[in-house]
Amino acid sequence: MAKIRLKGVKKSYAKLQVVHGVDVDIADGEFIVIVGPSGCGKSTLLRMIAGLETVTAGEIEIAGRRVNEVEPKDRNIAMVFQNYALYPHMSVFDNMAYGLRIRGLARGEIEERVQRAARILELGEFLKRKPRQLSGGQRQRVAMGRAIVREPAAFLFDEPLSNLDAKLRVQMRLELQKLHRELRTTSIFVTHDQVEAMTLADRMVVMNAGAVEQTGAPLQVYDRPASLFVAGFIGSPSMNLLPGRLSASRETVDAGGGVRVPLPVELRAVAREDVTVGIRPEHLAAGDGPAALRFTVETVEALGADSLVHGMVGGASVVARVEGHVTPRPGEALSFAPLPGKIHFFDSETGRRLG
Amino acid sequence: MATEKRVVFKSAWLPYALLAPQIAITVIFFFWPAAQAVYYSFLLQDAFGLNTQFVWLRNFTALLSDSYYLASFRTTAFFSAIVAAAGIVVSLALAVMADRVVRGALVYKTLLIWPYAVAPAIAGVFWAFLFAPSVGIVSYALRRAGYDWNWVLNGDQAMFLVVTAAVWKQVSYNFLFFLAGLQSIPKSLIEAAAIDGAGPARRFWTIVFPLLSPTTFFLLVVNIVYAFFDTFGVIDAITQGGPAQSTQILVYKVYYDGVKAADLGGSSAQSVILMFIVISLTVVQFRFVERKVQY
Amino acid sequence: MVENRPLLTIFSHAMLIAGVAVIAFPLYVTFIASTLTYEQILQVPMPLTPGDQFWSNYGQVLASGSTRGSAAPVGRMMLNSLFMALAIAVGKIAISIISAFAIVYFRFPARNFFFWMIFVTLMLPVEVRIIPTFKVVSDLGMLDSYAGLTLPLIASATATFLFRQFFLTIPDELAEAARIDGAGPLRFFRDVALPLSKTNMAALFVILFIYGWNQYLWPLLITTQESMYTAVIGIKRMIAGGDAATEWNLVMATAMLALLPPAAVVVLMQKWFVKGLVETEK
Question: In a designed cystine with B151, which of A1, A222, B157, C249 is the match (CB 3.0 to 4.6 A)?
């Protein structure tokens, strides 16, 4: 178990810089999720921590020791890959035992560790099988088993659930949570799926285009997204973002479609001309007022528990979430008012949150 | 498929150690002799090998004006063209038939591919026996039909014999590749054509054959190279280049002049010319076939 | 088959059977001839049903060869062929797989140079450099030796290419997982790359065994003692000259024996054989 520290970590391939100065401190036993869209540099970051990629600038510390030049096998970490990376010609038992055998552990010790991991992951009856005889979920568990037996300082997960079907993914998320509660090993989990991030993370690191946009506990990030990117990325369906302009009196932000949102007092001084207003679909309630969104219903997605109502407000498409048995018909004119205190303001140019 | 691995191991000496055996053998038994062949092609030796003279391109010009050499060139061109053409046509026909039948496909396949295991020299011996002027079964049948068969005297007949032996052996190889090519054509294409109203013959010429063209082109090159070199055994087993050099293909002449006639310079020059031909053929194959194979 | 056209199917079968017959005809005649006496063959036309000399002919050639032309016992020649074929197949596979591994899994100066060096050998079959290679082998004192028979034929680019192709398809994550597990390059090669290459090795073995067994020009040149002849060239030497003087029955028996091992390999290991052929030509 260890503390992992990233200080100003940068990565470049020739002239192309893909990771711009990342700083993260990971506490012992924490489950950190690095989340972002494809190509944002999250996998590269993980691989640098693992030692599979070199660090162009900055430092990586594991358990207080600088590991930039240390080989992966000496960093005391274990990795779970997206496509499992199981040795196809070895049995499940041998797959899990391989790393231990190389390290020269005693037969008895190896047997004990593998059996223990197999018990935790419910792989006992598969130990003699080969990977091709297992289902996707089972293979993923073997991959995790291989990591567990190493009893490492940290687990590194590289999008491990991406190759599984939707239902299996949900199941594996719960198993991962259970596993973490039981083992309490420091874990760094990379994914592009914000649902996985929200449900698994003690803290999230949201990345975009090689830089960290925000770090924080899931609900913190949800409640106070630090930038337009985070606001649009976290939360499903995405937050409604309405570009607007500061009124002459600096008291409201006027967005399209006649929407006039009152600006909180403390922001009136710092706001600039172009302000984007953000309201989550779940924070809209039927009602009226100067800040209300009035639109004609275009489509309705009835999901059972909720319904999502789509429309256009002043050129921007908006979504409102309503109760399941309320199903407006296309063509109806509706009005939704934002819940107080749930309106977000962002500087349209820099994308950063105001306040 | 990527041509580079993302993951590499680090070691200062290991890759060299792993490469050493192959490189060593390649240098000793390939580059060094090839270089020597080039070197010798510039030399002229007297009858006893005592006096050697550096004559630059004289061996080459001598060859190019030697009527026997030019005849050998013509013979080889003719031989390889016929062998390649016949080999491809026959094996394509058989492959198409084999692809069509559902029952017994595996049996036919097994029965048609075993000649690959036969050495060209042995193939030559088989057919030499069948067509042997005095004791051959086929010769007997031909004589009974009124045809005067004696390849020992008749150069055209000798050519026919070696072509037959060479094609016989190569059909199995071509057959396998054509079969694989045919089976890689998606059935949905054929079915779509059938629904559009095309009969079997039209389907073959307008859909199957064009899609098979990379395989055909590839086999064309392979067969030509085969006819140039691997048929040495066939020639040596049956005709030894005769009668009167009518079946003396280029590679055989290299052997004959170098070993039997001990003309080192001339033989080496011939080797060098052959090298150029093969390299061009290989380059053609890589450039055009590889390109076409990517759909 | 898309439509039901029984006539076409019957025609296909007929053509295939005809094809099989033509292909098999020489073999059949050869077999018959190998069971007859010398006189029976001279008597034209020779019978088309098996004779009774099977044991006598085969026994004779195996033990003492023919009485005209070469008199080397075929048994000894078969052994030479077997050794040569095995040595070439195993040798090629061994040196090629480690070369391919070096080229794929390492980055080092002159890597491309070595790669092209090996690639070039693809272009020049042994027939083209036959005389100088003979000189080299003779200078090294390897005439009439197993080393001389096999070493010059072992440098093969096709095997290296095949393995290189295959190694490139091994997922990168496998090597990374092995690295994290603590495996160095040799360990990875032994524990992961090699076992995964088994089918390719089997396929190559079939092709290379046949290639080695059927070598003709090279053994012809470098063996002068009859005890070093291989089966394939032994047959040629038995054909004394003038087809009447040749003991065809014994020659045919020898031919049958000479083609048996490669044919057996092709038929019994057909699956690997086909795979090997298709893979090596890519």
Answer: B157
